[in-house]
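Worked problem 6 (solution included).
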Amino acid sequence: MRVVIEDQVPVSEINDIKVELLPATTAPTEKDVRNQRGVMAWSLEVAPGEAKEIRAAWRVRWPTDKAVVFVPGH
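Solution. The predicted structure is:
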């Protein structure tokens, strides 16, 4: 059966704060799904009883003189 998995990574609105995907991330089939920044999708064929793994790894970098607060869901 075909399965589509969607997930998102943080998106910065500030130029000094960078969010980058790490090499451990499974390459998504689509990025910025429905024009939503940071939303990725993986389209997979999965057989009955089969297990597949998708990894999303990211890092946030910012200048040392700035404080950053991460609030999931905002």
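Discussion: The mean pLDDT is 92.
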